[in-house]
Amino acid sequence: MPLIIIIAGIILLFVLISVYKISAFLALLITSFAVGLLSGMEPLVILQSITSGLGSTMGSLALIIVFGAMLGKLLEQSGAAYQITNKLVDLFG
Q: Tell me, what's the pLDDT at 59?
């Protein structure tokens, strides 16, 4: 039974994104809520689970995104991004 629920969740996610053109983030939230309900979880427990999982994921990604943005800004202000772009255009056309 759990395997059927997982397969149904994957199909639902695919349909929401490809057929109904719902954003992947929103489709993932809808699908995770639906899979939780089909698995017999209480709605409040599902929301707590989604919130804690999303919070921990965003917490670990936030640092990477911030440092990437800082590095990009430094490359832009120093002119290194312009030099890298020119070299790549020279190499690859």
A: 86
Residue 61 tokens read as 């990604």
| DSSP single-letter state for residue 19 | T
- Report d(CA 33, CA 82) in Å as an integer: 45
Backbone angles phi, psi at 2, to 5 degrees: -60, -35
End-to-end CA distance of the chain: 55
Segment holding 34, helix H or strand E:
helix 24-38
CA atoms in the 13 A half-sphere facing the CB of 26: 8
Helix (H) or strand (E) holding 10: helix 2-18
pLDDT tens-place string over residues 12-36: 999 999 999 999 999 999 999 999 9
* Report field, pTM of the whole predicted structure over 0.70: no
